[in-house]
Design a protein that fits this description.
5-stranded mixed sheet, 8 strands, single chain, about 160 residues, globular, alpha/beta
Length: about 160
Amino acid sequence: MPDTYDRLIALLEGVPYKLIDHAPDGTTETVSALRGHPVAQAAKCIILLVKPDKRTTKYVLAVVPGDRRVDLAAIKRLYAAKYVGFADAATAERLARTVPGTVLPFSLDPELELIADPAVVAEPELYFNAARLDRSVMISGPDYQALARPRVEPITPR
């Protein structure tokens, strides 16, 4: 989805960032090795379905360090939800405006609430696929936070 890539590049204008070309891959561990950084510096992006009650559905983009997993119980507590699970692939692609493995740590859809773990925004060098399997971005965690304006909460297991 080229328009998502173009939107990302426009969003990054005005902050220091680096583009990194690499072999196509969307797996956090593999692409971190291709980019040459520790997995902890990768932004892993997961789209979740959150149900505060039976009639209400919210979607959340959870961003966690690449070497951690999202704590669904923590998300459940934060949203006082009855249920939290992973969004189906079609919904995730529609909301992220890109394919799995290339989900950006930015919300480009008003239906998608963005939440990031504190370790993500504290990272001096944060890496993620640039809405493409063959290109990534490196940006500082503080610059990411200033651009994306995520809700920052601990959302990984302690």
